[in-house]
């Protein structure tokens, strides 16, 4: 059975849990990270030298990096409906997954840590405003893409990219500041409610 190491409140762990729900994969989940078992122990660092969650164990295979894990699961366990075999279609999915992991993540980091996590090191009003502005700019890009597809981020069908992006939209909506109005993003988030695992792993009260 798959084993997922990482606390369920982590956005990156939730990517893996939601993917398992979409693929109807049984798994065991162990809580690791702040408030639970330390990821800085020799035991955990032998699995992921970065000391970060999630870690996936599938038999003898050990994987870290959340987007790598969900790509593996879809490829290994019959998820071509989520992660197409066609190179062109797959590239569109990869593009938005990589964008979420780089451009979008970097833009929200300061504001999220200050406003939600209440980090003492992230309380500069100027830096928070700059982060929100950058975050808003990226959400504007997403809104335009969703307006163009009329459905999901990589096209007309739900794909693996919608899991990290959907979780990111949830984080956007739950971080307390005055949000710009992006109707296509709002419609998209409602559309995701039809997905298996959404209420448990995305719209679950966690940012």
UniProtKB/TrEMBL annotation:
One of the Pfam families matching this protein, by short name: GST_N_3
GST C-terminal domain ranges (all copies): 86-207
Residue intervals of the GST N-terminal domain: 1-81
PROSITE patterns, A to Z: GST_CTER (PS50405), GST_NTER (PS50404)
Name of the molecule in the record: Glutathione S-transferase
Organism for this UniProt entry: Paraburkholderia unamae
